[in-house]
Amino acid sequence: MSSNTKGAITKQKILVTAAALFAEKGYTETTIRELTEAIGLKNPASLYHHFPSKNAILEQMLDDYSEGNISLYEENTIRRILRESPNIDGILACMQTAFPPEHAEYYFSVLCVILQEQLRNPIAKEYMCINIVKRAEYKVSIIISVLKELGVIRPDTDADYWMKVTSCLSQSFATRMMLGIGDSSADFEGMGMAELLRHTYTLMLETCSI
Fold first, then answer.
1. Measuring CA to CA, how many Å separate 184 from each of 36, 65, 71, 181, 187?
2. Cβ–Cβ under 8 Å, residues 62 and 110
3. Which candidate, 175, 202, 176, places its Cα nearest to that of 92?
4. Between the CA atoms of 99, 102, 108 and 110, what dihedral angle is there, to the nearest 10 degrees?
5. Which SS3 state, helix, strand or coil, does residue 158 take?
6. Which residues contact 185 (CB under 8 A, 6 or more apart)?
7. Can you tell me whether residue 104 is helix, strand or coil?
8. DSSP at 190
9. Nearest alpha-carbon partner for 144 in 161, 168, 167
10. What confidence tier does 161 reach under pLDDT thresholds 50, 70, 90?
11. CA separation for the pair 59, 63 (Å, rounded)
């Protein structure tokens, strides 16, 4: 095995182990020495050979998370779901699509770190403000595009409007998770997030259908 290949494997092991440890213990509370021991490296210097700081590890996680979110995998999954179920249940299933199975655990750990650190770490805060919303908007843009192609909704359906509505719901969900409330707490008129999404896109189908 070449040194470059070994280095790439070690770097990925650092990221996966760090994501799990940060999600469990907290990014701020995890020390470099604890991380080094969890990875199985001899000393912190071995870790610094791959990442110059703990913030650099977090930044790489966020870059990975963005690439995993806005991916051909997710677009193809959404298209397959809507071809089979071009209705409200299909739309809700599309909103729940995640990541390629081989990376799902890693990305979920990174998401937990983002939600935990968004108020006290400027890197996570900036990412949260931009990319969590971008993820929701990206999904909706594909959903509406496919529904138009299938002739389920009118060609003049305003995708930007429904993307903005979804952004608001996404931010609400992120705030719930950050506060430790979860996804099933009561919101407007006693509805949780799942119910709000169902009402939102039922309304879209009713008002924009052909």
1. 37, 25, 28, 8, 9
2. yes
3. 202
4. -100
5. coil
6. 176, 192
7. helix
8. G
9. 161
10. very high
11. 6
**CB-CB contact of 188 with 196 (8 Å):** yes
Tell me what pLDDT residue 112 has. 84
Q: Which residue has the higher pLDDT, 34 or 133?
A: 34
Phi and psi torsions of 132, nearest 5°: -65, -40
Average pLDDT over residues 181-185: 55
CB 61 within 8 A of CB 113: yes
pLDDT in tens, 59-114: 999 888 877 665 666 788 899 999 999 999 999 888 876 666 777 788 888 888 88
CA 70 to chain centre: 9
DSSP state of 132: I
Q: What is the 3-state secondary structure (H, E, C) of 42-92?
A: CCHHHHHCCCCCHHHHHHHHHHHHHHHHCCHHHHHHHHHHHHHCCCHHHHH
The CA distance from 18 to 163, in Å, is 33
Has residue 188 got a pLDDT over 50?
A: no
pLDDT band at 134 (very low <50, low <70, confident <90, very high): confident
Single-letter residue type at 139: K
Q: How far apart are CA 105 and CA 99, in angstroms?
A: 9
Q: Tokens 């095995």 — which residue?
A: 1
Token pair for 46: 């071995």
Tokens 């903005």 map to which residue? Answer: 164
